[in-house]
Every structure is written in C-alpha cells, then in structure tokens.
Amino acid sequence: xxxxxxxxxxxxxxxxxxxxxxxxxxxxxxxxxxxxxxxxxxxxxxxxxxxxxxxxxxxxxxxxxxxxxxxxxxxxxxxxxxxxxxxxxxxxxxxxxxxxxxxxxxxxxxxxxxxxxxxxxxxxxxxxxxxxxxxxxxxxxxxxxxxxxxxxxxxxxxxxxxxxxxxxxxxxxxxxxxxxxxxxxxxxxxxxxxxxxxxxxxxxxxxxxxxxxxxxxxxxxxxxxxxxxxxxxxxxxxxxxxxxxxxxxxxxxxxxxxxxxxxxxxxxxxxxxxxxxxxxxxxxxxxxxxxxxxxxxxxxxxxxxxxxxxxxxxxxxxxxxxxxxxxxxxxxxxxxxxxxxxxxxxxxxxxxxxxxxxxxxxxxxxxxxxxxxxxxxxxxxxxxxxxxxxxxxxxxxxxxxxxxxxxxxxxxxxxxxxxxxxxxxxxxxxxxxxxxxxxxxxxxxxxxxxxxxxxxxxxxxxxxxxxxxxxxxxxxxxxxxxxxxxxxxx
Amino acid sequence: xxxxxxxxxxxxxxxxxxxxxxxxxxxxxxxxxxxxxxxxxxxxxxxxxxxxxxxxxxxxxxxxxxxxxxxxxxxxxxxxxxxxxxxxxxxxxxxxxxxxxxxxxxxxxxxxxxxxxxxxxxxxxxxxxxxxxxxxxxxxxxxxxxxxxxxxxxxxxxxxxxxxxxxxxxxxxxxxxxxxxxxxxxxxxxxxxxxxxxxxxxxxxxxxxxxxxxxxxxxxxxxxxxxxxxxxxxxxxxxxxxxxxxxxxxxxxxxxxxxxxxxxxxxxxxxxxxxxxxxxxxxxxxxxxxxxxxxxxxxxxxxxxxxxxxxxxxxxxxxxxxxxxxxxxxxxxxxxxxxxxxxxxxxxxxxxxxxxxxxxxxxxxxxxxxxxxxxxxxxxxxxxxxxxxxxxxxxxxxxxxxxxxxxxxxxxxxxxxxxxxxxxxxxxxxxxxxxxxxxxxxxxxxxxxxxxxxxxxxxxxxxxxxxxxxxxxxxxxxxxxxxxxxxxxx
Lengths: 490, 490
Description:
Two copies of one chain form a homodimer. With 490 residues, chain A is an all-alpha fold. The first copy, chain A, folds into two domains: 3-144, no CATH class; 160-487, Neurolysin, domain 3 (Orthogonal Bundle), CATH 1.10.1370.30. Chain A has helices spanning 3-30, 37-55, 58-66, 72-90, 93-116, 119-141, 146-154, 160-182, 197-210, 246-265, 281-295, 299-313, 321-328, 345-361, 369-381, 407-426, 430-434, 440-449, 459-467, 474-487; strands at 220-222, 228-229, 236-239. In chain A, strands 1-3-2 form a three-stranded mixed β-sheet. The N and C termini of chain A lie far apart (67 Å). Chains A and B meet through helix 1 and helix 2 of A and helix 1 and helix 2 of B.
C-alpha cells in the first residue's frame, strides 16, 4: 500500500469512530434515560480518548510526509487530515478526555438549571468548562489569539477580526431596519389557537419531504434544543413542539432539514473521508438558514403552507395567505435567539460573540456573566431580561464547550444571503415550484453548486465558487430590507 | 500506580467502549434508518477493531502477570480480563473486524429474507458467516472442539457434552408431558379479539413496573425480535405488538425486564469492571425466564393481570381468572420458538442445538439446512413447517453469528427451575404479593442472592450459591409436570 492508501484506510476507521461518537451524542439528547448521565460521560470520554489517540498517532505524521496526491481531491484529503493531526497533537490526551466527560455531564446540569431557572446551579460547572476550554485554546493557539484558535475549529480560516468587521458593517442597517419595523403603523397579527402535537409533527414531516429530506437515510425525533446529527446514510433531524406556536416546530424542522440535506447531498464517494462532511459550521448554517428563511418563509412557500395548515388545523386565526406571510415573518421584541425573526437574529449572535470573547480572554468572569448578559441585552434590545431561562441559560452551547461557535450562525446567514441571490438569478421561476410546496429546484441548485462538494473546498471558496462573487453581507441586508419593507409597508 | 490499578483503568475504558458498541447495536435494531446499513457495518467494524486491539494489547499481559489481588473480587477481575485477553489474542484482528462488519450487514438481509419468505436470499450470507465463525472457533479451540470453543463465549465452563447429557435427561419427560397435554380432554380456550397497540404498550409498561424495572435507567422500544441491551445506568428493553395476541407483547416485555433487571441489580461498585455485567447468557436467561414464566405466568400474577387486561380492553373472551390462567399457559402445536409455551420451548432449543453443532462441525452444509430443519421439525413436533419464515428463517441468531448461543436458553430454564424452588422455599407468601401485581419480594430475593453479584461467581457456582443445591433439571421438570397436570386436569 502507498502512504496515501495507508492514510486513507486509517482515516476511514477514524471517521467511522467519530460518526459513532456523534450518534452517541444524538442518543443522549433524544432517547437516553435520564439516570444514565454518569455512564454516558464515561462512554463519551472513552470515545474521545480513542479518537484523540488516533488523531495524534505518530504514524499519521509519517504517512502525511510521504503521501503523494494524484489530484485535487487527494491533496485536500491530505490537507484536512494534516490539519486535524496538527490541532489534536497540541491538545494533551488528558484534556481532550476530560472535556468530553465534563461537557457530557454539563448538558444535564444545564437542562435542569434552565428548567428551574437557577443559574447558580450551572455557573460553577460552566466555569470549569471555561477553564478547560481556555487551556485547550492556549494549546491550540501556540502563542496566537485564544478565541481565534477556537473559532478555527468551526470555521477554518476565519478570525475574530474578520467577524467583528462583518458585524460592524451589519449592525447599523439591522438596527435601523428593526426600529423601522417595530415602529411601523402596520403590524402583522400573531397566530393564535391550540395546535395539537401530532398534527404539528405530521405537518413537519410533510415540510421535510417538501425540502427533499431523504427519510430512508434519516429520521425525526423530539429534542429540547433541535439539532441535526450524522452524515451520509444516517443524518437525523430533531424538532420541538409548542402547542401554541406551530411555527416553532415547522421552521425548526425545515432548518434542520437544511443541515441534514447538506450531509445527505455530499458525493457518496467521499464517505468516510474528511471530504464526507460539511466543510464548516458557517457553510452548514447557510443551508439551514436558506431552507428555513429565504425559501421557507418566502411568500411563495408560505402560500402553500397556509393552505396546508388551514386544512390540518381546521382554519387559522389569520384571514388569508398574504396575512399569513406577514404573520410568519412577524418581528417582535423577544428574549430567545432560536425564536428570533430574521431581522433581529444576528443581533442575538453579536451579543454572544462579544461576551464569549470576553470570557475566553479573561476579561469577564463567569460569576459576572448574568449581569453582563442582562446589561448588554437591555442595551441592544431595549428590554430587560425577565428571568435567567430567557437570558444566559437559554442556549446549550457553552455548556457543551462550544465557544467560538455562535458567530458561525451569523456567518451562515451572510453566506445564505449570497447563495440566495445567485440561486434566484439561476432559477428565475423558483417561486412557481415553491408555491406548489416543491423546493426541488432550489435543493437541486444547492446540491449541484455546493452540497455535493462536502469538504473539498474551504468554506469561503466554496460559497464564492457557487455564487461567482465575493462573500459580502450586502445581499443579505438588501434582501432583509426589501422583504421587511414590503411586509411592514414602510 | 500498581499493575492492578493500571489494569483496572485500562479495562474501565474498554468496558465503556464495549458499552458504546452495544448501544450502537440497540440503535440498529430499533431506530436506525433502513438506508444506513453500509455505514453502520463500517461503524460496527471500526468499534470491533478498537475493542480487539485493546483486548489483545500486549500491556495487558504484563499487567496481568504483575497484578496482585487484595481480595476475591480483585482475583475474579484479573481472571476475567485474562480470559478475555487469552481468547481475543487467538483471533486475528482481520477476522474480528470482518465478523463485526458481516454480521451487521447480515441482520438486514435476514430481516428482508424473512419478510419475503425467501431463504435463498439469506443462505449464501449465512454460509459466509458460518465460514468466519468456523475460522473463529478453530482459532479459539486451539486444537480442542470447535463448538465448545464458541459455547464457552456465552456460558463459560460449559461443554456440549454436558448440554447434550442434560437435554437427554430432559427430553423424555418433556415429550411425555407434551403428549399428555395435547391429548387431554380439557383444552384451554384461546384469547380472541382485537387489542390496540397503544393499550398493549400501556399495559406492558405497567407490567414492567410491577417487576421492578427502573425507568430512570432504561426505556422501552419496539423491535422485530425483542431484546434487552446495556448495563448499569442504561439498560433498555424492547417489545413487539401483535394486535390479535396481547400475550406476545406483555410476556416479551416481562421477559426482557428479567434481563434488564439483572443488569440494573448488579452492585454499582462493579460498574465498568468485568464484574459489572451478567455472568453468562444462561444466568441471564434464568432471570428473564423466571420473571416471564414461573412468576409472570403463575396463577397469582395472572389473576391480577386478568383484571388489568379486562379493564384495559373492556372485557376479555375468557370468563374468569382461572380460565385466563389456563389460556395464558395454553399448549398448542406451533412453529415459532419465541411464542412457544413452557412445555415445548426446550424442544425448539434441542433442534437448534443439534443443527448448529452439525453446521460448525461441517457435518451439515448450509445448502441442506432448510431440508434438515424441516425434517427434524416434523420428527420432533409432528408438524410440517409450512414456510421458511416459520422455519429456519425465524431467528436472527445465526445471522448475527450467534452459534453456541441457543443452548444457553435451555440452560437458563434449568437455572430458573432451581432458583424458583429456592425462592418459593425462602418466600412462602410470595403469591399474596404477586396476586396484587407486586413482584417485589421475588425481585428482592433474586437481587440479593444472585443479581447483585454480577460477574463475581462462575455461572453454575452462582446458581448453586443462591439455591444451596447442585444445578439439576429436576426442579424445572417437576414444576412443569405439576403446573401443566393441574391446568390440563391430567
């Protein structure tokens, strides 16, 4: 066997094991008995120990030195394995294992603290995790910036300076749009009523199918915090149900279908190689957001959805499809990121980005986090947080060690804005299909121009290749201003 | 760290990884998307490769040589790890990995072949697996008997000669009892009607709770072939539902609770050591069978169940609790092992035991298996198999490589007979509790005398310690003759 083949065979097993670890995470958040937390933490730690050992295996270094790529795919595989090897080799095995164990345990503690609205039960645990993450960041940064080292795990090649500049460019237009919208004379009506769980889930399945979700290679379950999980032949989605708000379930589902569709759409020849996964969290989020928002909350698709929901629930509190479109895009003051409308969503991200940079840099202590969150929220949103579950306890991310992850959501929105502009230009009659509840032309365009490539191109290069232009926040902001000016009759 | 502590720390991680592999097996049989078979086979193979590497790790040999036990528990831990290390070291890594991959793939192929009643789709795959298992048996046997080498994996210390002698002692009395029962003037009525799935599952949960199942450390799902899975804090059960036969669901559930109860009942100090699992398949089956049969199908518990089922289904086709008791223990000619009554069950096992010994010894070819099965079934049961799904395709075991496993079911029945006699002597008023739907006194006795010990004692020693007498088929046969003579008014 050539060095490259040795490398590929070894990596194949590592990819399979990492897929197992991901499946174990899915199990923990959907079906695991609540008394199994200690056992699961040990299991996660054991898997991480095995994965870390493989990623730091000295043979990798030898094979990487000797591997000779035959084409661009081979070269990219070598680049990605080398990157993974280099990063893993900087992290001591003890730290990797301990992080897996602590974050598995912390998930349950966070969920209980949130349910009891008791930040004091969670913050000490968060502090432990922050200390471990800072240790990890120091190891990874190798003298460089700590936050950049973490961010690089989720969005390779991006720095906090770039993100900060992007956010600075976005903020004024978003804030202005929000002010206009909240102050507009016309305000859409909320959707009121009781929407039974079973009906919501049935509709959610219909929506997932409309967006091309392949049920033979996936499934849908309920989770506290919807997520998607897995790759290739086994990419699962989760959703949640609030019986007073069917949009929560339906748009969570379409969002997660965007993620899973990306994984399902990757060239199957890439399975069990580093090319066989979405290339970054930002690229991933671009898919979930374009499915959910630009397509799912557009006038054409909501027209179809209005009819479906009216039939399923036996009438709706809004009079027609136009009113329904406005309702589905209603902008209101609110505490919760995952329930935020398109106008305000990125402002929620900016808050988290700044706070977590301060935490990682040591400028903010965990014990001051509640106060810092609440002060910042009041400043940014003009509303005082009423309780911790609506504030700092709302997201699971920090509990599971995801520092540097939040900005990829906003980046995903920016990418989605770019992709949407290109998609509309390429498929001018897309709305005709969407109005029939068929997202196929959009899914096909995204699959062909982006999804199938998996990890082959770096994130920004991938988007620029698909759109034919540089990545910029402008298409997203133009789209938002146009859409919401029309809805709010500004 | 002492050599023993090194050994323990290493084993702790191995146990956690083996628990992950078991969880992956659960996933495959309950929730996995049907299109994920190839991916899952790779994942299972990767986990097996890691486990095999750990079990054959040369450091184990060094630690085992130097480890100094401080007490009987330490000594048994060393014995069990050494045994595992010795067996694993005889199997080439390639073979272990290939077996994991092939048996994962074969499961789906078996299920489809069974559904289509097409043995030709499955037998070539079975032949591949048989060849791999024979190779494994040769490696393990080290010149000794092939079948004994496989049997030893499930029931350490037992030989096919012992099993054959036991079966020879059991067969005449079982056959005579069956003839008497099937020829009796009185025949219990079958239960007829339609029993909705949701109601069956609700009752199944009630029964599981009655038998002490700890829902905080387990859950129940639907599977084609009910099984239990996992240990300590995460021991799950599965069941199946046939809407014309509620006994199928309810007694499958109680049976699996027996298995899971054993795992849940093991001393939690043993978690992640080789003592933290049921000691053998026979010991395991003794628990599932005593829960299901001696307790669950006894007059006292069925009296309570009769009332519960009458309430839940709005009346039953049998007139009273006595008639219901006879119905729940009805003996009829039938093809399916898992649906067999207590009288005939072991005859189904004897058939499989003889056929699989012939397969492993090379005296029977897979291509002749259908014919051999059908001929033997006709001879043993006096009925011709009507279709392969009711014959050789009915069990998943051989598809997943479980040769040498079937006899442990019969051994479990023998153990259950011994335990039941001792339990009744120790808890004379047990029926009073069972008549109230409370199995607690029985579960407590079993937990104290058997379950909590996990792997501490060898299987036969464990049963003999709990019962105070030698293991013998006599208590089981006495119990069956007494019970069925009374029911059938012989």
